[in-house]
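Need tokens for this chain, all 311 residues.
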Amino acid sequence: MKDHFLLRLTLAALLFAAMTAASAPAQTIAAEDDTWTTGSGTQVDFSNFGNINLGQLLGSPPTSTVINFAGTPLSSSLGQADTLVARGSVTVSDSFSATLSLKGLSLGSSPDLTLQDGRVYHITVTLATQGGGGQMDFTRTTSDSGTFNSSFVVTPIFTLTNVNNSNDGPYSINCLTDTTKSCSFTMHGSGNWVLTSSTGFDPQSQGIPTVPSGVTVGSYTTVGRPRYGGMQVGCNHTSCGQNDELHGIIGQAAGHNVSPPNDCASSASPSPSPSPSPSPTSGTTKQATTSTSSASFTTQTDTLCAIAVAN
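Here are the structure tokens for all 311 residues:
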């Protein structure tokens, strides 16, 4: 009699669990855009970046091959964002994936490149193509959050403009069309994600504004990212930390230092990091690699924070 009673309880529990699972519909998240700002410390060592030779290109060696870069806004409609990533639609489950594509990139040298003959060049970094593919793989660890790993291709254009002589140049290094330069690379990253809702995680609690739809960046028009009903990468339920869906954007080293993110609530340009190489926050990591060069990227940070236009 006792065994029969326990069997009935077990069957009832299994039936209840099955009904509960069946009644919880799979949540589909439409395609969204993520916008980013580049923090202080993003550097390229051009002495070891693909097959780029600045001295050969410009006719005089640089005083230093290590150049610092800072972000410049892609569009007034996207606030301070200098980087735009399109993320494909997903159906949330225990394990799922989304396509990624880098759609916008706008960086400038700060300070500029100085040659040994005294000439000074401003270097900008933009995209050679908006079609660089990639993927983000998600794992769900709670009902509405989890972790991710990502990778995608970055193919930049470096444009060098003489700041004192408009008749000199400009010079362009296109990593798509000039395959001898071998300067395209793949970014790898990992971090946290959380679904957004009016009763759960609110991005604006971390100073993260929505991304507007209908903004044209190159040949791409943003689909946007709403305040609620979507997914926020780089955050858990309580905080947002240093995420790399992307950054180290022009680095290609197998290893580099990571500094903590700047204030997510700030709409101004990122401020310098307080220390050179503390541990990353929010359990996020990042790595950039190519098949043609060794470590050339020394330090970089990003604010995460999808800096765009607040509601």
